[in-house]
Every structure is written in structure tokens, then in C-alpha cells.
């Protein structure tokens, strides 16, 4: 299936990595994922890429990492690959202390670029 802009459907996505070691409630995790998605979208300067991603349905995949160290390692690999990243730091008003890093968004971008870095991570 092709989108209005002519690209093949399913070729772009945005991934959010959530720290599983924090044991966030479902609601808190969802809120943090929302922050990551919005920040990644706003940081992506390629208007055509954003438009195609939206036309394809704005695919988002939520994965988990086991620690802050793992989150930072994957974030750095994503940056080295030229991907947009957005680290989310919590305000600390509910479940975690202020400035706790809860997740990171990667993308939106081509699936194959993101998959090279995140393909071995489990879903949240």
C-alpha cells in the first residue's frame, strides 16, 4: 500500500524505550511515552519524513530496557546513527524523584535504521 506521498506503507516508525527497573504504573509509563513521542516529533526537522510517518499512521513501538545504563547506551548508538532522540526526565510529582530519566524516544525515521539499534529489545 502506498501513501499520498508515494512511499510504501510501514516504512517509518518511532520507538520509545521505557526503563523497566523503575516499575512505573501503567498510567505513568503512558504519560512518559507521550512526552517522548511529542518531543521526538517536534525535534524532527525533515517535514517530508514527518508527513510520511503521519500518513502511514504514525507507527509507535514501545520497548523496555532494564536500566538507566542500557538506556544511555542505546541512546548513544541511536545518535551515532543520526537518529533523533529525546530523553524524558520526570518532574517528580508522583512516582519517582525529580529529574528521574524514565524513557527515551527514537525517531520518527526509517524502520531499518531504528531496527538496527532496537531489534533485540522486548516489548513493554
Topology (elements, then pairings):
Elements: E1 12-19, H1 26-43, H2 47-55, E2 60-65, H3 68-80, E3 85-89, E4 101-110, H4 111-118
Parallel strand pairs: 1-2
Antiparallel strand pairs: 1-4, 3-4
List the uncertain runs.
none
Gross geometry: globular
What is the residue-averaged pLDDT? 93
What is the domain tally?
A: 1
Largest sheet: 4 strands, mixed
Q: How many strand segments?
A: 4
Provide the helix percentage. Answer: 25-40%
Q: In which order are the strands of the major sheet placed?
A: 2-1-4-3
Structure characterization notes:
Helices cover 39% and strands 23% of the residues. The chain has one domain: Bit1 (3-Layer(aba) Sandwich), CATH 3.40.1490.10. The chain is built from four helices and four strands; from the N terminus they run βααβαββα. The protein has helices at residues 26-43, 47-55, 68-80, 111-118; strands at residues 12-19, 60-65, 85-89, 101-110.
Amino acid at each position: 500500500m502506498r501513501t499520498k506521498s508515494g512511499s510504501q506503507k510501514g516504512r517509518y516508525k518511532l520507538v520509545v524505550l521505557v526503563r523497566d527497573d523503575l516499575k512505573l504504573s501503567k498510567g505513568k509509563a503512558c504519560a512518559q511515552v507521550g512526552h517522548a513521542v511529542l518531543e521526538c516529533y517536534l525535534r524532527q526537522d525533515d517535514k517530508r519524513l514527518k508527513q510520511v510517518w503521519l500518513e502511514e499512521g504514525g507507527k509507535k513501538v514501545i520497548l523496555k530496557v532494564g536500566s538507566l545504563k542500557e538506556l544511555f547506551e542505546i541512546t548513544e548508538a541511536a545518535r551515532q546513527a543520526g537518529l533523533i532522540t529525546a530523553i524524558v526526565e520526570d518532574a517528580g510529582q508522583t512516582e519517582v524523584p525529580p529529574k528521574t530519566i524514565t524513557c527515551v524516544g527514537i525517531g520518527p525515521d526509517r524502520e531499518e535504521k531504528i531496527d538496527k539499534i532496537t531489534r533485540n529489545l522486548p516489548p513493554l
